[in-house]
Specification:
Layout (H helix, E strand, L loop, with lengths): L37 E11 L3 H11 L15 H14 L4 H6 L1 E6 L2 E8 L5 H7 L9 E10 L11 E10 L2 H5 L9 H16 L8 H12 L1 H12 L2 E10 L9 E10 L5 E10 L6 E3 L10 E4 L2
Parallel strand pairs: 3-5, 8-10
Antiparallel strand pairs: 1-2, 1-4, 2-3, 4-5, 6-7, 7-8, 8-9
Length: 306
């Protein structure tokens, strides 16, 4: 679901709560040596029952049998239909008060990693939509500000960091791939290379809490030039692989610019060809991919794309 949260204005019977449930600290000033507590992470959105009283209210409201589990994940094959019934119920404006009481979790490769608190009450509709578990692999994007460890009463004793989420969306690789220019007759090679680099970036265990991880996740979900480059390298008989992240050799900007470096090798011999890189500015919450102001080679880095 690729929409700005502020475009959604459902009419609710219960007045929306506009502040996060738990206070979240503001980021440090830009000249602070401390890394800003921003998060940009991919995973799967799920909900948990925070307390017995919320469970009882939910069961009564939806007329759920007392002998059946109500908390996802529910056992297949009936579980898929039951979870859809729960989503359809929660998304109704009159039931949104229950959605606000649930504990929303982001899992990274199946590991519970963050408790998600939307910065805007209207964004619960996005969380409900993102909790669709039939989509595999899970590629929900959460971006926001890292807060404290949750108190025990917030999410049934879970001691996880809270993230005040400003962006809640689902990453759809097809939207990027459909915009690429594929050389005629080379569709299979091109598509395979795009799939390989996508898989390499998105299957890393990456909690999106460091500037390096944020930059990689941002590039993987926003950069069509990355996938265009990987496809063209494959057509030329090469393989493009993720190598490392370093601070970009750009001085005097006062910005925190990182370079995600990829290594190009020959597919048939494995011989090194060159390195290519993308620059990502991670100085603020809103990251951006930027082209270099001038060639910055060194370290055998011949070309920078952006």
């Amino acid at each position: 679901m690729n929409r700005d949260a502020r475009d959604i204005r459902p009419q609710e019977i219960n007045p929306p709560r506009t502040e996060p449930v738990v206070p979240v600290p503001a980021p440090p000033p830009s000249d602070s040596p401390e890394q800003a507590p921003y998060v940009y992470v991919l995973g799967g959105v799920e909900w948990r029952l925070p307390s017995p009283d919320v469970e009882k209210e939910l069961r009564q409201a939806i007329s759920w049998p007392p002998d059946q589990s109500i908390e996802p994940p529910l056992d297949p094959p009936e579980g898929e239909g039951k979870e859809k019934r729960l989503r359809d119920f929660l998304v109704e404006p009159r039931n949104r008060y229950l959605a606000r009481q649930l504990c929303w979790i982001l899992t990274v490769r199946g590991v519970e990693t963050y408790i998600i608190v939307p910065s805007d009450s209207d964004d619960f509709e996005l969380l409900i939509a993102a909790s669709e578990r039939l989509r595999e692999p899970r590629r929900d994007v959460i971006a926001g500000v890292m807060g404290p460890i949750a108190p025990p009463e917030l999410c049934n004793g879970r001691s996880l960091p809270i993230v005040a989420a400003e962006i809640i969306e689902t990453f759809d690789p097809e939207l990027i791939v459909s915009a690429l220019t594929v050389p005629a007759g080379k569709e299979e090679e091109f598509d395979n290379a795009v799939g390989d680099i996508l898989e390499a970036l998105l299957t890393r265990f990456n909690t999106g809490a460091t500037d390096e991880d944020r930059a990689i996740n941002f590039l993987a979900t926003r950069s069509s030039s990355l996938y265009q480059e990987a496809g063209l390298q494959a057509v030329a008989g090469n393989v493009m692989s993720f190598a490392y992240v370093r601070r970009a050799p750009v001085g005097g900007t006062g910005r925190n610019i990182l370079q995600i470096v990829f290594e190009i090798t020959r597919r048939d011999t494995g011989a090194f060809v060159e390195r290519r890189a993308a620059n990502v500015d991670t100085s603020g919450f809103m990251m951006m991919q930027i082209p270099p102001s001038r060639p910055e080679f060194g370290d055998r880095l011949e070309v920078i794309f952006g």
